[in-house]
Amino acid sequence: MSFADLGLIPELLRAVDDSGYTEPTPIQQQAIPVVLAGQDVMGGAQTGTGKTASFTLPLLQKLSRWANTSASPARHPVRALILTPTRELAMQVYESVQSYGKHLPLRASCIYGGVDMNPQIAELRTGVEVVVATPGRLLDHVQQRTINLGQVEILVLDEADRMLDMGFIPDIRRILALLPAQRQSLLFSATFSEEIKKLADTMLRSPQLIEVARRNTVSETIKHMVHPVPTAVKRELLAHLLTNENLNQVLVFVSTKFGCSRLARHLEREGLTADAIHGDKNQQQRTEALEKFKNGDIRVLVATDVAARGLDIDDLPCVVNFELPPNPEDYVHRIGRTGRAGKQGYAISLVAPEESQRLGAIERMIKLKITQEVVPGFGTDATPETLRRNRRPPR
Predict the structure, then answer these.
(1) Are 247 and 318 in contact (CB under 8 A)?
(2) What is the domain range of residue 260?
(3) Measuring CA to CA, which of 59, 142, 307, 312 is 20 to 30 A from 93?
(4) Residues 35 and 179 reside in one and the same domain
């Protein structure tokens, strides 16, 4: 099947071709015709499945039927609203809208927190049809009356399960109350909890359920490995693996913002190029760290779960769980950064004895017994002192 078979207009087909894509992914094959037909969608899809194009392409096509070339801001009301949980994901979805819509006379804007509102206000005042936003900053604009949602025709809620994890559902409900009742709504989520189903019931009308993979499953192209290790020597083991294994681009997940920065500094002291990305970093710092990682200027990016979704990094070979997440679903989201589009990926977890229950919960959910391998010298009796002693050159 080609993109032309999905009923896309020539302007979008040109943009898809410019992007280098030739065949639609399974979710694109299923979702695009349904969205074009005007149906609501409840989509079950993990990152890396081509989900973003599955809603941006038909959304742009529907808006293009009544596209306006007038310079008057009043002739460009907000007609499509895409909500995402994080700034990084908002920027990536916005880039997708810009890329696919470049041959269409449609305007788009991306609004998120952590940066000055004034440039966003100025852009919104020029008139934009498509707004990609994080919930909190969108409500800031609503409160300041710098955005009008009264003419929204299409609503997209991306990564709804992450919205739930981050406590955004009350904000989502407030936003839903501001939108026209007559609209098309699309909800995408990697997992469907009872809370997500309740939200879907309130925002979707007779939705078409589209799932491209079993719920809570991981890509078969990912190799999993657990290295049992005491918590006290995890930093030393990570540095050892990065130094001695052929790991050239590694995304490392930690649990806390403090631990994130601390680990990045430790790796730098060990002679490894590293940076940290977490919620306390401002937007410019986060963007610069991600760009350095993508460009190969740094080898290791240490991240909290704020970066677990939406980071679009091509060909990322390896993800390391420095600490296992308390929610097994987050393991799936974290390692979903690697093994994408049929390529081989590697997921390494450094697991302390006190994390054994978390490991068991992950294995039960993904229905896989993960291979465990003790790295010589880093077994259960290893301590920072013994490692330092072993590293000292003989007299």
Answers:
(1) yes
(2) 222-391
(3) 142
(4) yes
Q: What is the mean pLDDT of the chain?
A: 87
Express each pLDDT in 342-389 by its tens digit: 668 899 999 999 999 999 999 988 888 999 999 998 877 778 777 777
CA distances from 261 to 108, 264, 269, 282 (A): 34, 5, 13, 14
* Whether residues 179 and 248 fall in one domain: no
Which residue shows structure tokens 């994130």? Answer: 260
State how many domains the chain has: 2
Domain shared by 185 and 233, yes or no: no
